[in-house]
Amino acid sequence: MERQFVEFEEKTVEKALELACKHFNCTEKELEYEIITKGSTGLFGLGGRKAKIKAKCLKEEAEEKEPPESDTVSSEDVETPLVQEEGEPQPEQGKEEGEAFEEDREETLRVAKEVADALLQQAGLEAEVVIQTNEDGPFLEILGPDLSLIIGKEGDTLNALEYMVNRILSKKLPGCRGVSIDAGGYREKRSKNLKLLAQRTASKAKRLGKDLALNPMGARDRRTVHIALKSFPGVKTRSIGEGLRRKVLIVPLRKKKRDTRRRKNNYRNRSGNRSSQG
After folding, report:
1. Do residues 179 and 109 lie in contact, with contact meaning Cβ atoms separated by under 8 Å?
2. Which of 16, 32, 156, 184 would bridge 152 by S-S if both were Cys, CB 3.0 to 4.6 A apart?
3. CATH code reported for the domain at 188-256
4. How far apart, in whole angstroms, are the C-alpha atoms of residue 194 and residue 200?
């Protein structure tokens, strides 16, 4: 019976070929194969895709294993020996991919700084990344002439950069804590302005006795508002809306009581009018 091609996936074509050889128990020279995709690592390990080949063994006595239902074999599908050859080094426990381990904070900041520097350089932006410390702990600060471009509208670009750095960081140092990134003190200024705006709007909501909504903002800014008004007397906050239109609604706590009292008074007036008419 003619052997069928089996697909193999791995990080590189070379590793996929090794996987095929292990699967068929043969050498690479005894394989007939075709490269489907060469694979790519993506930017700093993000957005990459695996290499894929399809192969079959030309050796008559090849010990072919039963292919999985998907007809695609990955490294997880091939059994590895429980006991290694004598003299072969044992893999270090806890360093395999997928196991989280906490990295030293200094190392985390160093790697995060390298990633941020590389991203800014690839974007063609003139800036310097330095490690700073405030009351919340160490963070990365971006300095230079292109701060307005790096910050973007209401900090959108800075938020995106921080997200990318932390995604890449989690790939490089699994289990590490994320880092905060600021640019020219923008976040501190933004936080102070948001707190003042939140408090003014809360006072106005209480005075008018009605709900007031702030303009749509990102998750970080909404969290700042919620925290700023957590201890503010007489109001509560909640987020409303979806996606880019999500915003914070400030609700005065006495509003419902006044509405209930108003409905009761209206009911009494209507009842009194009916009685006088009767």
Report:
1. yes
2. 156
3. 3.30.1370.50
4. 10
